[in-house]
Each structure stands twice: as C-alpha cells, then as structure tokens.
Write a structure and sequence with these properties.
The chain is α/β, with parallel strands linked by helices. The chain has a single domain, classed as Rossmann fold (3-Layer(aba) Sandwich). It has five helices and nine strands; from the N terminus they run H-E-E-H-E-H-E-E-E-H-E-E-E-H. The strands form two sheets. Strands 5-4-3-6-7-9-8 form a seven-stranded mixed sheet. Strands 1-2 form a two-stranded antiparallel ribbon. A hairpin with a 2-residue loop joins strand 8 and strand 9. Helix 2 packs across helix 3. The longest helix has 19 residues.
Length: 178
C-alpha cells in the first residue's frame, strides 16, 4: 500500500465530509464512502492484484457492494453479494461453491458482520480467504486482527481519519479567528 495514496484517501474522506466526529462522545459516523468515484478508485489502488488472483469477490450489504463490484471488474473475477437480513441471517446472491473469496465492506467495528459473512460463504461450500474493511472503526489493531482462521485487514483506521479531521478543524478555526 503506498502511503501517498492512503494519505490522499484520508484527506478526501475528511474533505468530502464523509466522516463525522462528535466532540462530546466517541460516536463516529461514516457516510457512504462509495459516493465519490475518486474514493473508490483510490481504494482499488490500495488493493494489490496479487491479493485477487484466483479469488472471487464478495461485497457485504449495500455499502460494500460498490467496492466489491469495482474490484471484481478491475481484476476480472466473479462477484457475489452477501445480503444481511433480519435476525443476523445472511443471504448469498451468486455461486460460492468451491471458490476462494475476498470479502469487502466499507467499515468494521466488532467484526461480527465479517464473521457472519465467512460463515454463510462456508455454508455454501466456499472458502473465505481474507476480509477487507475500508475503515476500521473499532478497537481492533489494524492489519493484525483475525477472526477464526480468516485474516482481516483494514485500509484505514478511524484514528487516522480523526487526526486529519482535527487538523482540518484546527486550520478552519485559525482562519476564522484571524
């Protein structure tokens, strides 16, 4: 992952107002990161083609689908949609049988969505290989957390966005107070 692309992505997410922090709490809201084609393109640049060789792509829910679709298109690999439904039941749209998967979603907090996605892929005779979150909003350590035997990585940790957001607000306040 090149640091320049990552740095630009962090700045764009903050600049476009796709992340919001409440000063009085730890609540964070990540709006749909896929609204910006630039953001989508940068995310794809951070995922290496070697990570996709021989694998299918699975997008989770509504917000993971744009990333999964563009990733599958860019690397010419099959796409499966994992649709969360009521009572933590997940529906798979597409064929998982005897395939290895990259599972992608926009954010990760507790990891439960990835755990459920891995379970449903396995129940359809698929093999989850890696889970990728664009932004890790939880306390898990970036790129070091694993659920069962499936590695989970995030491209950006929420603290990196918070630092950029604070810097932007500090600059804004300095300009307003001049």
């Amino acid at each position: 992952m090149t640091e320049k692309i990552k740095s630009d992505l962090i700045k764009e997410i903050v600049q476009f107002g796709l992340v919001h922090f409440d000063k009085d709490s730890i609540d964070t809201r990540i709006d749909n990161l896929a609204l910006s084609t630039t953001t989508l393109s940068r995310v794809l640049d951070l995922i290496s083609s070697k990570d996709t060789i021989g694998k299918c792509v699975a997008g989770i829910g509504m917000k993971g689908i744009p990333f999964a679709t563009m990733l599958a298109t860019k690397f010419n690999t099959p796409l499966v949609i994992i649709k969360p439904s009521h009572n933590n039941l997940y529906e798979v749209i597409g064929d998982c049988c005897n395939r290895h998967f990259i599972i992608i979603d926009d954010t990760m907090n507790t990891g439960n969505t990835f755990i459920n996605a891995c379970d449903v892929i396995r129940s359809k005779n698929g093999d989850p290989s890696v889970c990728i979150a664009i932004v890790n909003t939880g306390d898990t350590i970036k790129n070091k957390h694993h659920y069962t035997d499936v590695p989970v990585m995030s491209l950006i940790h929420i603290n990196e966005l918070r630092d950029e957001w604070n810097l932007k607000n500090k600059r804004h306040n300095e300009i307003c107070n001049e």
